[in-house]
Amino acid sequence: MNRDEALEIISQEKHQNYVWFQRPENVVDCVAIYRDQDSWNVVNTDERAVIGAVRQFDNEAAALDLFIRRLRLSKLT
Predict the structure, then answer these.
(1) Total structural domains in the chain?
(2) Enclosing domain of residue 69
(3) What confidence tens digit (pLDDT) does each residue in 19-44 have?
(4) How many C-beta atoms lie closer than 10 Å to residue 61's C-beta?
(5) Helices in the chain by DSSP H: which ranges?
(6) pTM for the complete prediction?
């Protein structure tokens, strides 16, 4: 998956609680994807904006796949 495909899914499925290629700072109940020096990261935040469920990837496509899966799961709850 690439960024354009992910953005299309986000738009079509009307996802809202996410942070796009930025580390989540004081954002509650979201799924985030961002890049640091060594990897692409997908994380969730809780009701207190604490980062958890951290997964690191060495390629963007795999990170985007997990990001979309987590967004879809968060919409179910």
Answers:
(1) 1
(2) 3-76
(3) 999 999 999 999 999 999 999 999 99
(4) 13
(5) 3-13, 60-76
(6) 0.94
